[in-house]
Write a structure and sequence with these properties.
3 helices; four-stranded antiparallel beta sheet; single chain; about 40% strand; about 650 residues; mainly beta
Length: about 650
């Protein structure tokens, strides 16, 4: 093996260094997910901005038909709670970011349509929860921060705190609004109650009369034609004032279970038409709040009207992404092409099918399927259709692309129709007397793997050891290898093709099998490298084993008996490492958003293009033998990303050079 690695020719190395590629990493989807804020350009109705968690900002230039991820400065992942577009200058954007107590929090400005962003120093490091722009002067902005209300009169060049620093009631400003006639009058909502100033913050007074005490104020709307008429949305419901906030009346009609209202909006052409975006859906009133119609059941975080046609609405929702209505809320269409904010936990595939799983997304997440190599996705089974289960593992039979297995924390599921329907697989093996659990309900499933040789084998890792089924989950046996016993099995690793060599990460370290899981032996890692993030096994059993650990990459050329630290990459956390199933010695790894590439079984590495992965939180790489030349990366928020190698023959030529020596 060592001789084979050492024989990598100089020509192969040159090809390796100059490996051409098709461009940046691109978002593959599945599209949709959580949208926290949205804005529309008052001067160009086709331009929209949408913000979400993990510091993701998207722009649409075609009224939501497609979206592009903007290159926001990398930093601490945060949430875009507020967006503004200058009505006097298209392409002039403001974005309010809450990134906790880090210096990355603050208001960011772009003057070139989102291509470049700069932090406005006067509020840098402050968590931004709301933004407002004075109607008559786009240079006058208010920022609702974790430390009160800040005001700028010069477009963000300078800021001043206009709320009382020592007032504990005005620390977290969750909502802001200017009076449409007098910009010196500003309204501020807090997690307690609303406040008002009529002199640019020189004096503030509480305007809480009529409000239920301790109401979180999420949004404030001032009627542009009748400034004394106001609406406010809160955790306790919807309120209206006819005297500029001095007295409030609660609007009835929305069920108490739906009263947590994130956004209240008034039709620009008809003040009696009101929309309320709540935790459990969008409501509409045609009679100034006297009665309400429930339009949909999606959690609405924000909404905007098309400036040219107020019948067109855009909703930023918690799970369904961006929704658009062309008919004042009668119907809604998801417009998420290019917009993604999914946390994918697993990806697998066989033949023409690719599957991915997401968690905590209700009816809009679960198991997705792609029939075109990850370019387009369909939700096959929602979390609700999976019985509320959040999946931690997903595996497909290599030769049966419709045979799918999935695991949650305490249940194993099987689908024979590509994830459309599922059946529960009880694991009830004969257990040793030393094992107290006697039925499935007490087993915690921590990993899942399907391998296929002469027959299909299903492996499941639990807190009581490794279990195996040779009949698709109908019956089970505990793998009683002496070295494993009842040690908890955290992860199971197998090559994309082949089944002779397997590995498991356990409570006692790493174990390796070279006979398909019948026998196992310890593969102890060097001291200080006990935490394993990933293990890569090549389809060629003579290739090395690679282990991504908290202190770098390890390589073993003798099936785990000895390991050495690879010096071609930094001695830091390797989140994922994978062999290319098409080329025995070609491997990829990811480390802090950077991808590295090896053509000699992991002995030497070069940086691979990583544009598009910055701050993406990549936790898994995946390559399929049925999609040659394409690499997938699973992110903490951006769903799946992919990269197409323009000339996969380069690696194939390197393999040929190696094997010919």
């Amino acid at each position: 093996m060592e001789g084979r690695q050492a024989s990598l020719s100089l020509s192969a190395l040159i090809l390796f260094i100059s490996l051409p590629a098709s461009g940046d990493w691109r978002l593959a989807g599945p599209f949709g997910g959580s949208a926290r804020s949205i804005a529309i350009d008052p001067a160009n109705r086709s331009i929209l901005l949408a913000g979400t968690r993990d510091s993701l900002l998207f722009r649409s230039d075609d009224a939501g038909a497609t979206w592009n991820l903007l290159r926001f400065p990398p930093g601490t992942p945060g949430t875009f709670n507020a967006l503004l577009i200058d009505p006097r200058a298209s392409g002039h954007f403001y974005a309010g970011l809450d990134a906790g107590d880090s210096r990355d929090s603050g208001v960011y400005e772009s003057r070139d349509g989102g291509e470049h962003w700069s932090a406005l120093e006067g509020v840098r490091g402050l968590r931004i929860e709301s933004l407002a722009m004075a109607p008559e002067d786009g240079r006058v902005l208010a920022a609702g921060t974790s430390q009160g209300v800040f005001l700028t009169k010069d477009g963000g060049e300078t800021w001043s705190r206009i709320s009382v620093a020592g007032n504990p009631e005005m620390q977290d400003i969750t909502a802001l609004a200017f009076d449409p006639v007098h910009s010196s009058t500003i309204y501020a909502g807090t997690p307690h109650l609303p406040w008002k100033t009529s002199d640019e913050g020189a004096n503030w007074h509480s305007i809480a009369t009529g409000l239920i005490d301790d109401s979180d104020i999420f949004s404030i709307h001032v009627d542009p034609k009748r400034p004394e008429r106001m609406l406010a949305s809160a955790c306790s419901g919807i309120y209206r004032s006819e005297n500029a906030g001095e007295q409030w009346t609660k609007l009835r009609g929305i069920p108490g279970t739906h009263r947590r209202t994130h956004i209240i909006a008034q039709d620009p052409n008809d003040p009696d038409i009101i929309y309320a975006g709540t935790t459990l859906g969008l409501f509409k009133s045609m009679d100034a709040g006297a009665s309400w119609q429930h339009l949909n059941a999606e959690q609405v975080n924000w909404m905007v009207f098309d400036p040219g046609d107020p019948r067109i609405l855009y909703l930023a929702t918690e799970y369904a992404g961006i929704l658009k209505s062309p008919d004042a809320g009668k119907t809604f269409l998801a417009v998420n092409r290019g917009f993604v904010q999914h946390n994918l936990t697993g990806i697998t595939g066989a033949g023409s099918r690719v599957y991915a799983s997401s968690i905590y997304e209700g009816t809009h997440g679960g198991v997705f399927e792609s029939l075109d190599g990850g370019m387009n996705w369909t939700l096959r089974s929602s979390e609700a259709e999976l019985g509320g289960r959040n999946l931690n593992s997903l595996a497909v039979a290599p030769s049966k692309e419709s045979l799918l297995f999935a695991a949650s924390a305490n249940e194993l599921l099987k689908s024979v129709d590509g994830g459309q329907t599922w059946s529960r697989l009880p694991i009830q093996p004969k257990l040793d007397r030393s094992v107290k659990a006697q039925h499935f309900g007490q087993l915690r499933i921590q990993s899942l793997q399907v391998v296929e040789g002469s027959r299909l084998a299903l492996f499941v890792g639990t807190q009581y050891g490794l279990f195996r089924s040779a009949d698709g989950g109908a019956s089970w046996e505990r793998v009683a290898a002496k070295q494993l016993g009842t040690v908890p099995v955290h992860a199971i690793y197998a090559p994309a093709r082949g089944c002779s060599r397997l590995a498991v990460a356990t409570g006692l370290g790493l174990f390796v099998s070279t006979d398909g899981g019948n026998s196992w032996r310890p593969a102890p890692l060097p001291a200080g490298n006990s935490y394993i993030y990933d293990v890569a096994l090549s389809p060629d059993p003579s290739a090395p084993i690679l282990a991504g650990t908290s202190r770098g990459l390890l390589q073993s050329t003798n099936d785990g008996a000895q390991w050495k630290l690879v010096t071609g990459v930094p001695a830091a956390t390797v989140s994922s490492v994978r062999f290319n199933p098409e080329h025995a010695l070609e491997a990829f790894l990811v480390q802090y958003g950077k991808v590295y590439h090896s053509l000699d079984g992991g002995t030497s590495w070069q940086l691979f293009p990583s544009d598009g992965l910055a701050s993406a939180g990549i936790h898994k790489l995946w390559l399929s033998p049925d999609i040659p030349g394409r690499i997938f990366a699973l992110s903490a928020a951006r769903g799946a990303l992919f990269y197409d190698i323009a000339q996969p023959d380069v690696a194939r030529q390197a393999d040929h050079t190696i094997s010919s020596k």
